[in-house]
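User: Sequence in, structure out. Go.
Assistant: Echoing your sequence, followed by the C-alpha cells.
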Amino acid sequence: MRWGNRETPFVRPLHWIVALFGSKPLNFSYEGVPCTDISRGHRFMHSDFFKVNGMDDYLKSCEKYFLMIDPVIRKKSIVDQVTSLANEVGGAVELDPELLEEVNYLVEYPFAIRGNFEKQFLELPRELLITTMKYHQKYFSLKNKHGDLLPYFITISNVQPGPGGEILRGNERVLRARLQDARFFFDEDRKKRLEDFVELLKDVTFQKSLGTSYEKVNRIVALTEFLATEVCPEQIKQASRAAWLCKADLVTQMVYEFPELQGVIGGYYADYSGEDPEVSLAIKEHYRPAFSGDSPPSSPVGSIVSIADKLDTILGCIGVGLLPSGSEDPYGLRRHSLGIIQTIISQNWQVSLDALIQKGINLLKDKTKLTSDEIHMHTQILFSQRYKTILIGEEYPYDAIDAVLSANIDSLVDVRQKVVALSDLKKQPYFEPLTITFRRVVSILNEESDGDIQTSLLSEPAEKKLYDEYRRVKEPVENHLSKKQFPQALEKIVEIKETVDEFFEHIMVMTKENELRKNRLRLLKHISLLFSNIADFSKIVLK
C-alpha cells in the first residue's frame, strides 16, 4: 500500500521512525517522516507516546506499553497460552510451525482465546477442518489423545478480550459460516462421481503453451503406466486409474474455494465414488512431498503418480523455455525435481532417469520450443543440482559429490551409494596418488580411443602386463557393479594402479605409429570404463 502522497510502498504504512546512536536520535528523514526519539505504545491497549533514551530504556517502556517486541519471547508466550487452554479441555494443540511463525508476526502482544464449534462439523474430512481453521482463520486446532480432532479452536488476538466475550463470539460466528460453506461444497460435489469431473478439465488451462489440464492428465497416465511397468507391474491398473483421476478435483467446488485441499479432497471423493483404496490413497498423496520436510507418498501407486505428475511439469516447462533462474521458479521445478529424487530413494527403485525423461519428452510431441537434446540436458542439470543440495546437507565431501554426479545419475538410488563409497575411499592414504593416476588415464583419451583392443599389437612387457591386470580385475569389478557393491568395486579397481603407473613410465602412448597409438589408447579407455561409471576423478580436489 501507499500512505498519503508518499511514493514508496509498504506492507504497513510508516508512521514514525526511532533510530538512536547511544541515546541521541539520528538526523534524517525518509518519505517525509523524520527520525525522532519518540515512539508509541500498543494501538488499542496503551497508545500514548513515550520518549526513548536508549535500548534498555526502550525495552522497559515496551513492557509498560504492551509491546512484546522480542519475537522469541512472543512466540513462547503464544505456545504457553495455547498449550494451557488446550489442556483445560483435555486436548493437545496442533502446533503447526508455519502457522505459529505467521501468527507470531501478526501481533504485538498476544492473547490466546479458545472457542468451539458444533460437533456435527467433525463429520467433515479432518484436512478440511484444519485447512479452514489454519489458512482462512489463522486458528490452531485441537486433538484428543487418539489424534482425533476436538470441536475447539484457539485464536491469537492482539487485544485483550473484554468481559462481554465479543471477540470470542465473533470468531466462532466467522468459523461457523466457513464450515457451513465447506459442508455445502462437500455435499454438492459428492452428488457426482469423481470420474465425472475429468471431462471438465478440458476447459482448464495448465499452461498456455502446454495445453489443458486434460492433456496433462493423459500425459501423466502414459508416464505412470511406463514407470509402473518397470517398478510394480502388478499394480499398473490401480496406478493408471489414479493417474486418470488425480486432477479431477481441480474443477470441484471444494477446491475452487479451498485450493489448499487439491489432491487430498480428491482422495476422499474417490472413496465416496467407490474407487479402490489404493487409488484413493494415491490421489490424496500424489502432490507429496509438497514442501521442505514433507514426506513422500507412502504407497508405490501414489509414488508413481507423484513422479509422473512432477516430471511432466518439469519437462513441459523446460521445453517451452520456463527454466528456473536465480530466485525465479514460478512452476516450482526445483521443488518437483527434489520431490522425485526423494520419492525414488524412499521406494529404493532401480529405474532409469534417462528413460523416464525421454518418455516424457516424447509425450510432449510438438508442444515444446527446445529440442529433445536441450530438454534432456537442462533436466539432467536440474536433477544434479538438486541432488547435490541433498548430499551436501548430509555432509558428504563436495568434490566426491561432484565426481559421482558428473559420472552418471541415471540411477538416483545408486548415486548416494556411490558417494558413500567414494567418500570412504577418500579417507585412505593412497587415495590422492590413485586420483592422479586415474586422471592421467582419462586426460590422454581422445576420439582414437574408441574401439576394441587388438592383443596382437601388445608387444611391450609393460602394456602386456597392464592388459593382463585389466583382464584380471574386469570381471570382479563388473560383478560387484552389477550387485551394486560399489565399495568392493572401488577396492578392486585400486589394485590396477601400480600397473598403470608402470605402463606410463615405460610406454610412449602417443607414438607416431597409428595402429600402435590407437591400440594403447583403447587399452586405457577400457581401463577408464572400470571407474568412469562410478566417478569422474577429474572433479576430485587434490591437496
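User: And one key feature?
Assistant: The chain has a mean pLDDT of 93.
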